[in-house]
Amino acid sequence: MLKLNTWFTLALGTSLAMLVSCTPNTNQATNVQQPQQEIKITGAGSPYPAMKVLAAAYEAKTENTVITFLPKSQSPGGIAGAKDKLVDLGTVTRTLKPEEDDGSLVYREIAKDGLVVATHPSVVGVTNLQTEQLKAIYSGKVTNWQKLGGPDATIIVLDRHEDESAKKLLRKYYLGSDLKNAPEAVILRHEADLIAAVESTPYSIGAFSLAYAIANQLPVNRLSLDGVEPTPENIQSGKYKMVRRLGIVYRQAPSDISQTFIDFAFSKEGGNHLLGSGFIPSSQEQE
Fold it and tell me: Which residue numbers delimit the PBP domain (predicted)?
C-alpha cells in the first residue's frame, strides 16, 4: 500500500508540473493595444479635400491614429481653433493677417488648387469664355446659352457667397469688385452643394475645385478662360490665373503625433498622394 501511495503521489506531482508548464503566464507582457490617438482639424472648407487625401494615406500606414475633421467654417475659424488649442491643425486659404500673427502659430502652404468654371454636359458648343462673356453671365446680362454659341436654353448661374474664396477669386481675376450679381443666381454656401448642383442641373454653370473634378472624373465641361485651359500644368506655369492656396496653421510646438502627420504631409510621399488627386503639392515645388 505504501508503494501504491508513493506512485500516486509522484504521478500527481508530475501531472501538476506539466499543467503548470502548459498554462500561459498572464503576468508576462502581451500585445496590449495602444490607446487610439486623435488629430483634430477644422477651418476653411477649401483645403479639406487635400487634407482628407493626406489623412487617408497617413491612417492607412499608421496604427492607432485617427484624423477627425470637425465641421468646416472659414479661415478665421481654423486660426482661432489652433490658437485656442481646440484643434491640432487649422485649415486656411490665406496667410495670417498682421493682427492674427501673434507668434503662436506656424503657417505653411500645403498645396495649390485651381478654380475651374464648369458647365453641365447639356451645354454643348461652349468650351471657352472670354472675360466679358463671363461677366455677362454672372451679372445676368446674358441669360441664354445660344448667345454664346451654345443651345437655346436659359443659363442657370450657381454662385457662392461673397466671403467664400471661390467668389473672391472670380472677382479678383475676371468679374471685378463692382459687378452686380445676376438676380436669378442660385447662391450656395458649400462647395459640395455647388458641385452636386452643376452635375445634376441642365444648362448650369459654376466654379469649384479643379482637383476635385480631376480626381473624381466629374462628368462636367471644364471651360477655358480667355483661351487658357484649366490644367495642373497651366497652374504650375502660372498661365491659369484662378488658383487657391491651401494652407494649414498649427502651434509653434505641436504634439508629437501632430508633428509626425505634418512631416508626412510635406514629404515626397505625401506630395505624391496630392499630385495623384489633382493638387499641386507645395513640397514638390520647393525641391
Answer: 33-269
